Amino acid sequence: MTQVHGARNQGIGNQRVHLPSTWSYFNNIGALDRTKKSGIAVGYDHRFGLQELSTFDLATAIKNRKGTFGLGISRFGGKLFNQQTIGIGYSHTLGVNSIGLKMEYFQTQMEGFGSGGSLLFSLGGITELNPKLYLGASISNINRGKISQETDSRLPTLVQLGLHYLPTETLSLLIELEKDIQQSPLLKAGLEYRLKEWIFLRSGINTQPSRFFAGFSIQKGNLRLDYAYSQLAPLGSTNHLSLNYQWGD
């Protein structure tokens, strides 16, 4: 649940709030209606060379005149321990503001201990301060859902607040503050540069713990391939790969 989805968002420093896309279903449901077209996206994350820490996910965004509806499915882990989610969301834009609400079922399964799950609710939004500056926020698990009904252990509740600045048509600068209500805040910063009409380059950093990110996209028509690489000492590197297809006006 705490993961950022989509290699594009991973490449700019593991940021969630901005860069609207089909992956906004997972990252910031309020940004989903700012996607220009309906879309479907699939992704795979391979962490620290361990298959047991891999994530498979799928997201869809369906636009109509009343807003954008989203559906997402994700699975993290291996045979001994895994977590999966499935849910739906809705995002709508009114003037310079876009807001959204998501509901999902989150299940945790552990070998020898069985499984448990609960419903989680998340909110998000983006405000256009001016044509070059955007403010975004997201709150996940606002109801503080538990791992299961048989325990008092609760899943993380995360709050993100970020700014997206476009100094030129080809460059985006992004900064984001993330706070788990039970942990110290985490600062993220990154950039995206459009080298050509069909290729984008990205980089980003995190604090506490310090992490480095880099990535790129190749786009042809309505199809885009994203790749990102991240490094976390001393655990090692993570590779992120996602494929996005869009259709409609």
Give a description of the structure.
It comes from Algoriphagus limi. This is Type IX secretion system membrane protein, PorP/SprF family. A 14-stranded antiparallel beta barrel has the order 1-2-3-4-5-6-7-8-9-10-11-12-13-14. It has helices at 7-11, 24-27; strands spanning 38-47, 55-64, 67-77, 81-94, 97-110, 114-130, 133-140, 158-165, 171-180, 186-196, 199-206, 211-220, 223-232, 236-247. The mean pLDDT is 93. With 249 residues, it is mostly beta strands. The protein starts with 6 loop residues before the first helix and ends with a strand. The chain is globular and about 55 Å long.
Strand content: over 45%
- Unreliable segments (pLDDT under 50, ≥5 consecutive)? none
Oligomeric nature of the chains: single chain
Secondary-structure element pattern, one letter each? HHEEEEEEEEEEEEEE
Estimated radius of gyration: 17 Å
Distance between the termini: 32 Å
The counted number of beta strands is 14
Major beta-sheet overview: 14 strands, antiparallel, barrel
Structural class, please? mainly beta
- Total helical elements: 2
User: What's the average pLDDT?
Assistant: 93
Rough outline: globular
Protein name: Type IX secretion system membrane protein, PorP/SprF family
Organism: Algoriphagus limi
Topology:
Elements: H1 7-11, H2 24-27, E1 38-47, E2 55-64, E3 67-77, E4 81-94, E5 97-110, E6 114-130, E7 133-140, E8 158-165, E9 171-180, E10 186-196, E11 199-206, E12 211-220, E13 223-232, E14 236-247
Antiparallel strand pairs: 1-2, 1-14, 2-3, 3-4, 4-5, 5-6, 6-7, 7-8, 8-9, 9-10, 10-11, 11-12, 12-13, 13-14
